[in-house]
Amino acid sequence: MTDQPTTEHQAHPKEAEIRALLDEGLTNTAIRRRLYVGEKTIARIRAAAGIPPTPRSAHAVPRHPQERNIRRLLDEGYNNAAIRRRTGADVAAIAKMRKEGQFGKATIRTQKPYIHPRDAEIRARLRHHSSNAIADQLHVDRAAVRRIRDLAGIPFVPPKFATADEKWTTLLRPVDGGHVEWLGQRSGRSGTPVMRFREKSVSPAGIAFKQRTGRNPVGQVRAECEFRHCMAPDHIDDEPGRLRERGQLRAIKGNPAPSGTCPHGHDQAEHVKYEPDGTAYCGVCNREQRRARTRASTGSCPCESCARPCFDQPATCPDHGAGCEADDHLAPPTVAGEHL
Q1: Fewest CB within 10 angstroms: 103, 231, 312, 322, which?
Q2: How far is 316 from 323, CA to CA, in rounded Å?
Q3: pLDDT of res. 168
Q4: What is the pLDDT of residues 292-301, one digit of tens each?
């Protein structure tokens, strides 16, 4: 019986070098890159020598092809976006190198800081107005005002006013033509100036009128000039003042004051009103026409005093025919389409 021949692997020409690198703890891939030897051969020599596989924690992560340029730009102070434009590297990879190398934040600004179109106007109001008030006045975004306030380092300290007139004075700005612009809050679609003082609503136009005349206004008080909601005291008048000045304008034009009654029998000596150009009209008829239009559009003309449709029971409504104006009415509550 003859012995079976044993198959022995022939020693690799670089086996000694391979074993030396295996003893140093290099991975099969690292040895392949150094010696240009197949990984199967290296694995066979590793197994024959009884050397365990290298732990995965020792596997080298491939270097980024632009790592040297990225680190140089990081050291110079460029931000991640600028480095990405210069090297084509992914922002995540750049951020990782910034963190690992402890480079800190970028110090080079690659673009000019954004300047708001109304930056100067916003800054002029920062010390005397809140951010929300400035945004409402200039019709700009509140976040933009807060950002400019942070950049300017100007905190807002609400002022304490002794009187409503003192607060009113701080909310004015003179404009061309002798007019005065209101910088405070406004109400409704018409933008009527409003102001609150010590938890009470105060009429800015009423304050302007009282400063000029020394008395409280009677009826509606508003500016008579062409500047909308002007706060110049000389431009503001109440209802008796408007009636007097428009009557004088009518007389200058050579038109006599209306006398007698209107076509509906209203005494014009008591109820006459004037347009801005001096044209006369009956105040009662005008009020009833507005009331009729309101009734046609809403189906009711409720009085604020009785909260019921005043045209249904005029005798019981103290305001009917006197102070019952369409602009002052509140919509009455309804159930199933019927007024309560």
Answers
A1: 322
A2: 14
A3: 92
A4: 776 666 555 4
Q: What is the length of the chain?
A: 340
How far out from the chain centre does Cα 89 lie? Answer: 37
209, 233 Cβ separation under 8 angstroms: yes
Q: How far is CA 196 from CA 163, 201, 236, in A?
A: 11, 4, 20
8 A C-beta contact, residue 208 and residue 231:
yes
Distance separating alpha carbons of residues 88 and 81, to the nearest angstrom: 10
Phi and psi based region of residue 36 (left: phi greater than 0; alpha: psi -120 to 50; beta: remaining): left
Q: What is the rounded CA–CA span in Å between residue 20 and residue 17?
A: 5
Label residue 311 by pLDDT band (50, 70, 90): very low
Q: Which two tokens stand for residue 323?
A: 């102070």
Between the alpha carbon of residue 89 and those of residues 63, 78, 85, 271, the distances in Å are 12, 14, 8, 83
Lowest mean pLDDT among 152-156, 166-170, 246-250: 246-250
